[in-house]
Structure formats: C-alpha cells, structure tokens
Amino acid sequence: MTQKQNHANTFPAATTGPAATPTLDEVAAAVAPTGAAVDRRPLAELTTLRIGGQPAAVVECTTAEQLAGVLEAVDAAGWRVLIVGGGSNLLIGDGPEVSELVVVHAADDPEAAISIDPETGVCSAFAGVEWDRFVAATVAAGLGGLECLSGIPGCVGATPVQNVGAYGAEVSQVLRRVRLYDRARRVAEWVAPESLDLAYRYSNLKFTDRAAVLEVEFQLDPAGLSLPLRFGELARRLGVARPAEGEQAGEIRRPAAEVREAVLELRAGKGMVLNAEDHDTWSAGSFFTNPVVAGEAARDAVVAAVRERVGESEAEAMPLFSVGTPENPEFKFSAAWLIERAGFHKGWQVPGRERAGLSTKHTLALTNRGGASSEDLVALATAVRDGVFEAFGVELVPEPVWIGAELPPVNRATD
C-alpha cells in the first residue's frame, strides 16, 4: 500500500550546545538586557498533557521584541533551546535531553498586543497570545474566518506552524503573513504564506529550529460571516446540512458568533476544551493525523480490510474523502473511526499502565489520567498505532512534537 506521510514524528527541537548545562544564574545574566523573567519549573507545567521533565531554565517572554532578543542571547551562548508556546502539541520526556534545555516560553499576557481592524478585517497578535482569546476577540469585533477554530488549545504562534485546522477550516485560508525571527541570520522579518509550504497539518516551520514565530497576521471577513460550512457534524449542529433555496452545498455561511458557539459545544462534548478538572482534556488534542493514502489501489485495500473486519455496512458508512487531484488521486480516512473499529474504545488503557488512556469522550485523544509519564503515553500510542496497522494496514502518524521521547517503528512483518 502506498500511504502518504506528510512528515516524520521526530523533531530536531534543540540546537547543538556545549557539554555543560547552563546554570539558572548564567541564563538570567545572558537574557537580562531583555527584561525577560527566568525561573526553573518542570515542562509538565507548560504542556497540556502535563508531562515533561525539568529543563535547565525557563525564560518567559511576553512581547515579540523580547522573544527575538532572548533567542538572540541564548543562541549566542550556544545552549540547547526549546521554544514553547501553549504546550498543546508536545510530548516531553524526563531524561537528560530535557534537563539540558533552556526553554524559551512565549507566554500570554493580558496586555499582550492584539490588533484588530473591524473595517478591513486585518488583525494580528503576538505569538504567545492564547489562541482562543484571540479568536474570541475577532468574533466579538464582528469578523468572520476563525470561528471554526474556536476552543483549540495553544497559542497564536503555533497556528501557522501546524496549519491548524478543525471542522473543515484551516489557518491557511485566512493567513495574511507571519513575522519570523530567523535564528541563523538573527533578523526578524514578515513572510508571505506562500513561503511556508502550507499543507494538511504542516508547514516548513515544523520539525525545524531555523526560525521562531513572533507575530501572526490574518485577513478576516468584515461582514462577520463564517468560512463555508463543509464539515458534516458542524453543519448538522447548525441545521444547514441541507442547503436552503438559493444556497449551494459546501458554500453555506453563517454569522461567526453563531458558528463559534456551536464549535465550542462540539469540542466540549469531546473533551477538547481545556479544563483542569477534566482529565479528558489533559491531552495533546488529536494525537494522530487523519491518514492519507495515494492512489485508488491503496484506497481499495483499506476499504477491503475494513469490510473484512467489520462488515459491508460499516465499510459503506466509513468516512472517506477525496483530497487529491485527477492526476494524483489521494484519499483521507478518519483516524478516530479506524481506531474505534480496530477495537480501541473510549477510555481504553494499556493493561498495567492505567495512568494513561484514550479519552472517555473521543478516541483520537490520548490522555494523562493523573501522574502519567512519557513512557505511559508512548506505550499507549504504540498500542493504538500498531493495532490500527494490524487491522487495516494503515500507519497512523502522531501529530505532536516529541522531545526526549520516541515512538518505536511499526512492525511491518505483515505489510
């Protein structure tokens, strides 16, 4: 089977540094001119999975200029660096690789810069601003375009890196430009979306340390209408699954505030809106990307495997989308659907490793049930990925960035 892999599941997150790990005082002295705060705390406090070891230091930045200045200082010192925003797409280990890191944290601040022009629809924000706070501000200002991405954890700076998407919408549809700090040239500059190679959950900023996002600018709709509602579940929730007279399927739009409310309800029902009291939200969001296979033969092989395992009626109802071109046909499957049909129910856990488990609301989220380690999450991810591969011949690709942890290769003995 030919399966399209958009990216690897490893990330060269840290620059090569000296053998000696810097002390907290050394880091504080290096970044002192920027005014950034420096402390020590485990990365578990900075990630939505609440997992991660103790780095050498954490430097907190609340402006674009501060972030660029801190990166220039720590890069000049030659230390190993990890840039963290909302921590919603990270799986961090507990070993020596983590303890050597200087973590540069782009943090939200109530006074962090958010710029919104209701007349033109142009708006921007510092990379560390909480994403949903920014989305809420744009909707409140009467702008449409980000409503389908409501409730997604993380920060503004991560959205172009991941080309964040949900409910049929992607950041690439409304992205105007991105201000980057080029770490090799030590310069800050605005770049156009075309330079980022944006694709499904991918940009060329992902899995590289060449640049850091400082600010992001979007072009939204001053009319306050949503992007076209093309995702079945959301369309049904809004009562627009079937076009009304004069409307065309796949092009229906509704007021952004109305769509945002529906999206937040859907996400909350799946444990996808952060809540410190709800362990279903102690996750990295959707852990696996929806698999894409290249060619009709590959598609038919998956459908045949599904039919053999769960029957004709399930195979007929399986979510399957054509995402390629007539010249290069590609087909996308639902990772969550495959996980469930491979036998992994909501709440499933690896026997003996009950500190981690699938969400009780949504099988695509791998969660920390309390006190889980990176090894617990690796065991869970491995079991689910290998089970889906054994059942359907499809290898699920993790979406989070891995630091100090590694997913073993899938066993292809039966491929």
Structure notes:
With 415 residues, the chain is an alpha+beta fold. 26% of the residues lie in helices and 18% in strands. The chain has eleven helices and 19 strands. The strands form six sheets. Strands 7-8-13-11-12 form a five-stranded antiparallel beta sheet. Strands 1-14-16-15 form a four-stranded antiparallel beta sheet. Mean pLDDT is 90; it is low at 4-19.
Key phrases:
four-stranded antiparallel beta sheet; 415 residues; alpha+beta
Order of helices and strands: EHEEHEEHEEEHHEEEEEHHEHHEEHEEHE
Q: Quote the beta fraction.
A: 15-25%
**What is the number of strand segments?**
19
Q: How would you classify the quaternary structure?
A: single chain
Mean pLDDT: 90
Spatial gap, N to C terminus: 8 Å
**Could you estimate the helical fraction of the residues in percent?**
25-40%
Strand count, sense and barrel status of the largest sheet are: 5 strands, antiparallel
Q: Which descriptor suits the 3D outline?
A: globular
* Radius of gyration, whole Å: 22 Å
Q: Which consecutive residue ranges, at least 5 long each, have pLDDT under 50?
A: 4-19
Structural class of the helices, strands and pairings? alpha+beta
SSE order and pairing:
Layout: E1 3-4, H1 24-31, E2 37-39, E3 57-61, H2 64-77, E4 81-84, E5 90-92, H3 96-99, E6 102-106, E7 114-116, E8 122-126, H4 131-140, H5 158-162, E9 165-166, E10 169-170, E11 175-182, E12 187-191, E13 211-219, H6 232-237, H7 256-269, E14 292-294, H8 296-310, H9 312-317, E15 320-322, E16 330-333, H10 335-341, E17 356-358, E18 366-368, H11 374-392, E19 401-403
Parallel strand pairs: 3-6, 4-6, 5-19
Antiparallel strand pairs: 1-14, 2-3, 7-8, 8-13, 9-10, 11-12, 11-13, 14-16, 15-16, 17-18
